[in-house]
């Protein structure tokens, strides 16, 4: 897959493309249906299937002190759309200049000239340009003038509800990772690099891999059963704790994972953590003995959920 890191500094796509534009946070079932439709049209026309997304997401740009939660990092989004068959990933760097761009400039300079879109598919709630002045009707009028096909697609629904990034976020807020998986078509995942921690888990007999997220997450604070993909292709079961760790006076969200029956050094490794089931909320403790007792119970429950008995 071709990756364009900044569309405003790229010479453009020769021969054009079939394009979809949006945040694509989480790449859920609705997004996947859009990608499949774009791919099919692109194959028919013999051009690449392209996806343009905004980074940072507009909400984070306009509210830097209280950015909205995100389902996926840019890296995860790139990996996901690649897996679903997009030929060209286009990053539109959302900054002050981009936010000030008029809807007409956005359509003329980026959609028509740089990307040479021959057909475009966006959601009915798509807004663009300065102060979100552009909408699907603006796009439709422009497309008709330029001979660009404006494609459409019915909403994808699950159990009578429209699938959206908001519905996935709400499932995660409630700790319903199985529901999130149904909306995503696969388990919710977090991919991040292992960083050095306080070594508290090791002193308690439960060494953990510490992953610091560089984005606000909708995931409920608590303990989860997870499956962890390692860089060499192996998969390991684990007990994950996500939260601020009140028992040790933590002050920022951290994802800690105890890998079952695993003793290798993995500092610096990038792990792909897939959430299987929520076990319990994050808790505070009056003593380390109480904490250790709960950790032992959590690990036993994780083994039961993952059907992974102790090898000891």
General description of the model:
- The protein is an alpha/beta fold and 312 residues long.
- It folds into 2 domains: 2-158, 3-Layer(aba) Sandwich (Rossmann fold); 187-306, Beta Barrel (Elongation Factor Tu (Ef-tu), domain 3), CATH 2.40.30.
- 32% of the residues lie in helices and 25% in strands.
- The strands form 3 sheets. It has a 6-stranded parallel β-sheet with strand order 1-4-3-2-5-6, sandwiched between helices.
- Strand 2 (17-21), helix 1 (29-45) and strand 3 form a beta-alpha-beta unit.
- Helix 5 crosses helix 6 (136-146) and helix 7 (165-173) packs antiparallel against helix 8.
- The model has no long low-confidence stretch (mean pLDDT 92).
β-strand amount:
25-35%
CATH architecture classification of the largest domain: 3-Layer(aba) Sandwich
CATH T-level topology of the largest domain: Rossmann fold
Query: What level of helicity do the residues show?
Result: 25-40%
For CATH, the homologous superfamily of the largest domain is named as HUPs
The number of helical elements comes to 10
Element string (H = helix, E = strand): EEHEHHEHHEHEEEHHEHEEEEEH
Q: Tell me about the biggest sheet?
A: 6 strands, parallel
Rounded Rg: 22 Å
| Average residue-wise pLDDT | 92
């Amino acid at each position: 897959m071709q990756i364009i890191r900044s569309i405003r500094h790229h010479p453009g796509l020769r021969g054009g493309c079939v394009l979809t534009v949006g945040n694509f946070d989480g790449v859920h079932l609705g997004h996947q249906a859009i990608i499949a439709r774009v791919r099919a049209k692109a194959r028919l026309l013999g051009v690449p299937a392209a996806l343009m997304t905004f980074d940072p997401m507009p909400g984070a740009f306009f509210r830097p002190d209280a950015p909205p939660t995100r389902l996926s990092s840019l890296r995860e989004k790139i990996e996901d759309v690649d897996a679903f068959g997009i030929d060209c990933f286009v990053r539109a760097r959302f900054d002050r200049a981009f936010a000030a761009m008029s809807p007409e400039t956005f359509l003329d300079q980026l959609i028509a000239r740089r990307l040479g879109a021959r057909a475009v598919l966006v959601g009915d709630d798509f807004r663009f340009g300065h102060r979100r002045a552009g909408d699907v009707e603006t796009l439709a009028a422009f497309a008709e003038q330029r001979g660009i096909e404006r494609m459409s697609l019915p909403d994808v629904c699950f159990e009578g509800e429209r699938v959206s990034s908001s519905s996935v976020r709400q499932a995660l807020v409630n700790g319903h990772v199985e529901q999130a998986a149904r909306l995503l078509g696969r388990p919710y995942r977090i991919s991040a690099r292992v960083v050095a921690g306080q070594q508290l888990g090791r002193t308690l007999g439960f060494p953990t891999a510490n992953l610091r997220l560089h984005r606000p997450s909708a995931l409920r604070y608590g303990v989860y059963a997870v499956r962890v993909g390692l860089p060499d292709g192996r998969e390991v079961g684990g007990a994950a704790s996500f939260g601020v760790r009140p028992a040790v006076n933590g002050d920022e969200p951290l994802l800690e994972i105890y890998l079952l029956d695993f003793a290798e050094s993995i500092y610096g490794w990038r792990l792909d953590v897939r959430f299987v089931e929520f076990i319990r909320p994050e808790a505070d403790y009056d003593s380390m003995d109480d904490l250790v007792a709960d950790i032992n119970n959590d690990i036993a429950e994780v083994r039961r959920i993952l059907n992974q008995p102790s090898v000891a």
